[in-house]
Q: What sequence folds into this?
């Protein structure tokens, strides 16, 4: 069975510092995709970054990067230079089938990030 | 800027009443998902459609929930009869393999349902 584990219910980070949000996953599929979404207090789900299981390089999108360690089955999100607007819930998710697949996402429980001024 | 729209945004109803939630996927997207978010269970899939055909509704209580896509621009999720445990935020998301951002599922703003 596929599973996403986020072990940090809450995290604090000082403004302008970097922070790493942990995510481990479990799947027997060879091809899969990993996602991070941000959910601010307004409730919307905002896509941040995607990593395919066959991608050789770690994904980056602006201040977001994904530290993908396939052997350890981890896909940690790194946010550099934290901003007050980064305070939100962050969800790690997985989809079987890799790039191009349109299957559903399986989500972790989320990590609440609070950025301190 | 194309977006997934959902109506209503908020719904308060009494136990036993029928609830209908609507979703308009992004034009051209052929895959539609319904997710439910609660504090206890987090985000979980209820159902998903591809080209309007239901592919997976195993996460949905069949006795009271039903999901349909009467046409490519409308997806509906109905609960009849509603129960207090159905109180949650219901998200619709859409995606497509033809877009350059095919790995992204675009989420709607959600419907916050409260069943008293």
A:
């Amino acid at each position: 069975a596929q599973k996403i584990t986020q072990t940090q219910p809450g995290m604090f980070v000082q403004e302008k510092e970097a922070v790493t949000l942990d995510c481990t996953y479990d799947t027997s599929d060879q091809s899969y995709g990993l996602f991070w979404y941000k959910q601010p207090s307004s409730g919307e789900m905002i896509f941040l970054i995607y990593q395919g299981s066959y991608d050789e390089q770690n994904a980056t999108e602006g201040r977001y990067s994904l530290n993908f360690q396939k052997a350890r089955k981890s896909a940690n999100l790194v946010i550099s230079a934290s901003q007050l607007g980064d305070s939100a819930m962050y969800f790690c998710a997985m989809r079987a089938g890799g790039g191009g697949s349109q299957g559903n996402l399986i989500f972790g429980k989320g990590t609440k990030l609070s950025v301190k001024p | 800027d194309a977006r997934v729209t959902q109506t209503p945004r908020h719904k308060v109803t009494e136990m036993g009443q029928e609830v209908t939630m609507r979703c308009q996927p992004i034009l051209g997207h052929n895959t539609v998902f319904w997710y439910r978010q609660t504090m206890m269970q987090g985000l979980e899939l209820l159902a998903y459609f591809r080209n309007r055909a239901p592919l997976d509704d195993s996460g949905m209580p069949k006795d009271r929930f039903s999901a349909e896509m009467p046409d490519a621009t409308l997806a509906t999720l109905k609960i009849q009869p509603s129960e207090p445990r159905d109180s949650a935020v219901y998200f619709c998301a859409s995606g497509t393999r033809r877009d350059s951002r095919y790995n992204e599922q675009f989420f709607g703003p959600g419907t916050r349902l409260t069943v008293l």
Summary: Chain B has a mean pLDDT of 91. Residues 46 and 59 of chain B are 4 Å apart (CA to CA).
